[in-house]
Amino acid sequence: MPYPHAGPTGLGQIAQQATHVLYQHRLVSTRQLHELITPHHTRAEYLRRQLHTLRDAGLAEKVGRRVSGQTELLWWLTEKGANAVESVGLLPQRPYRMSPEAALGPLQEHTLATVETGLSFVDWARRLGHECGPLDWSPETAHYYRDDARPGEELSLVPDAVLSYVHTDTRAKQRTLLTFFIEVDRTQMTVARLAAKIHAYAAYHAYTPSLPAGRGAKNGRRTSTTPAWRHRYPAFPRLLLVLTGASEARLARRIADLRSLAASDPALTAAGIRVGVTTLDQLRNHGPFDPIFTPVLGPPEATDAWLRPAGTAP
């Protein structure tokens, strides 16, 4: 998604872009904003001045956290700032509002890790000549479904992010839109719970909603032949699990345990969805199109073949 050209009035272009990024992603560090918005600037001084202009205008607020012995500033929009972005009407409205308590709360690290994951895709898209911008992923978008294993329940699948990426193959003169479900795991949940989240994606893939009464009814039952996900996506998004928050050895054990649990889930093995797992460090250092994703199902060798569009060269 390109940047909207309009924003809160009286602000420069960089400040306007910052309000859009903060609105969509809720809590972002100065470094992340610099790499997302002004990567062409060697230093972040100009961006910092624009952020402080937003704060002076009551549109943004900040809090500090200690990282490697230094203070890093985290930014979010105030109620006034969020209302200003919404009044322009160029971004989908998000009911979530950040607060000082939430910015310092237990979800801080997870929110920043999700932004870092999106930032990795943006960074590598620039390097590879592909397209993925700071607004091309949306956090916590609900997908409603039912699961035969939990009859009668209305369920909601909420990925950490849904990311869009345009892969460009210049030799084949081919552009392919790729869509990813992103789940960021900081080792705060059990492996069993993480496996249950993957099961939810398989259930969403299989979910076919009922039709309104009188349409397609057979023997008094309402049926549909179109899975719910097809109303939102041309192809079912690839599911990428990005692990962080522990040593490489611990994350490797976690991946092995996750593969074992996934292999024992008949709903997952029958679904045919693409699920890969990697670490945030690998994603940042090597990019999404290097062989860094271990398939959750199948052979354990890390690959990139299932991630690339069909017919593209490595």
Describe the structure.
The protein is an alpha+beta fold and 314 residues long. 36% of the residues lie in helices and 21% in strands. The protein has ten helices and 13 strands. A hairpin with a 2-residue loop joins strand 9 and strand 10. The protein is globular, with a radius of gyration of 21 Å.
Largest sheet: 6 strands, mixed
Number of helices: 10
**Arithmetic mean of pLDDT:** 88
Q: In which order are the strands of the major sheet placed? A: 4-7-8-11-12-13
State the separation between the terminal residues, measured CA to CA: 26 Å
**Relative helix content:** 25-40%
What share of the residues does DSSP label as strand, in percent? 15-25%
| Shape verdict | globular
Using DSSP, what is the number of strands? 13
Task: Give unreliable regions as ranges.
Answer: none
Structural class of the helices, strands and pairings? Answer: alpha+beta
Report the radius of gyration as a whole number of Å: 21 Å
- Order of SSEs: HEHHEEHHHEEEEEHEEEHHEHE
